[in-house]
From TrEMBL:
Residues 13-115, 121-226 form the Gnk2-homologous domain. CDD domains: Gnk2-like. It is found in: Secreted. This is Gnk2-homologous domain-containing protein. InterPro entries: CRR_secretory_protein, GNK2, GNK2_sf. Belongs to the cysteine-rich repeat secretory protein family. It comes from the Eukaryota.
Length: 230
């Protein structure tokens, strides 16, 4: 599994990974028009529900893809993000047969190999707040407790998404979200989230905020509200 780490504020807006599991294609390859059609299809299919998946073409030139917007994002902002992600991933990876791109509001992933329903453990990165908390042991425990509760809520939700908050010290609160791509089963969503929550000590030990973002699931926590109210 490849793990990349970034402090928040550096590369926070967009992360791109060329998976290169399947190599490249050349100009005028039959795969290219299928990928172009898939990109356009996902930009239309995703915004109404926040998730879209599909495939275009026939083997061996079939293109598979999905897009997911963060659970609190409006349909309009979802569309903006997915359209930009689809444009950017094709610009930056013009001949890659598979790639994945993440933004704050969405992710976009495609491949020439079917991956639906499979937990993606290969693509992952960490982000964390540079500031440390004053009582790391107690804070870490609270963080894990909140994210575990949200993981249990997410896998029981048809949208595979949950967000919430918990009391910290005095009037301070901790805010979090967990989310899976909706091609996963509920049980695999729970498995995926449990796996990335297990990355907390490596990612965000004693940090005021952090994220583990993968190709199939992600979490985020902060000591300030960061979600949109729908």
């Amino acid at each position: 599994m490849q793990r990349l780490g970034f402090p928040t504020g550096a590369s926070a807006e967009m992360m791109l990974k060329e998976m290169n599991d399947s190599g490249n294609f050349s100009t005028y390859d039959p795969y290219e028009p299928n990928l172009n059609k898939l990109t356009a299809y996902l930009s239309v299919q995703t915004p109404p529900s926040g998730f879209g998946m599909g495939s275009i073409g026939q083997e061996p030139n079939q293109a598979y893809g999905l897009a997911l917007c963060r659970g609190d994002v409006s349909s309009q902002d979802c569309e903006t993000c997915v359209v930009e992600a689809g444009t950017e991933i094709r610009k930056r990876c013009p001949y890659n047969k598979d790639a994945i791109i993440w933004y704050d509001n969405c992710l976009f992933k495609y491949s020439n190999q079917e991956f639906f329903g499979q937990i993606d453990n290969e693509n992952m990165f960490y982000m964390w707040n540079l500031n440390n908390v004053s009582e790391p042991q107690a804070f870490n425990q609270k963080t894990k407790q909140l994210l575990t509760e949200l993981a249990n809520e997410a896998y029981a939700n048809p949208k595979l998404y949950a967000a919430g908050e918990t009391e910290l010290y005095g009037s301070e609160k901790l805010y979090g979200l967990t989310q899976c791509t909706r091609d996963l089963s509920a049980s695999d969503c729970k498995k995926c989230l449990d796996g990335i929550i297990g990355e907390l000590p490596s990612c965000c030990d004693g940090k005021q905020g952090g994220r583990v973002v993968g190709g199939s699931c992600n979490f985020r926590y902060e000591i300030y509200p960061f979600l949109n109210s729908l």
